[in-house]
Write a structure and sequence with these properties.
The protein contains six helices and two strands, in the order H-H-H-H-E-E-H-H. The chain is mainly alpha-helical. The chain has a domain of 55 residues. A two-stranded antiparallel sheet has the order 1-2. Strand 1 and strand 2 form a beta hairpin. The protein starts with a helix and ends in a 7-residue tail after the last helix.
Length: 166
Amino acid sequence: MNNNNTRTNDERSEFLSGIAAMNVLEQPMRRAQIDILKEGGPAALAAALQRPKKKNNRRHKGARQILSDETKRINAILEQEQQKHEEDPAYVRRVPQVTTFNVSAPPSVRPVKHYCDITGLSGPYTSPTNNIRYHNSEIFQFIVKPMTPGVDQEYLKLRGANFVLK
């Protein structure tokens, strides 16, 4: 009986190795590759696998690229002015005045840091009554909670968060 089981196992392994030998793909195909194979045949699949698609992730130009583009633009203007001056000597050249320019950047993704209005340390807490930021419970208990309404507005004025009633 044991001999019979080994024979069926050997036959099964020979059968599976024969099927594996017929599979010429090195990697399993994706569903899109199977669709390309059905529509265009093996030549279309080979062409699709040879040209990988590259995604461009750049959103903004770098500072060096902006500077080089700006110098190219200025040099082109200067060259045009030089050609016009050579053609007509009475032509008055306009030399572009380059001072500084701003490089616009997107707003920061990081959250704004909050500081304690009393100590200047990090202020993760805000008083619900007067909107003063404080560092810990001791500062709240001994300084912020017993604070009079005029004094808290002075602290908020230092931060620029005060409100004036007219």
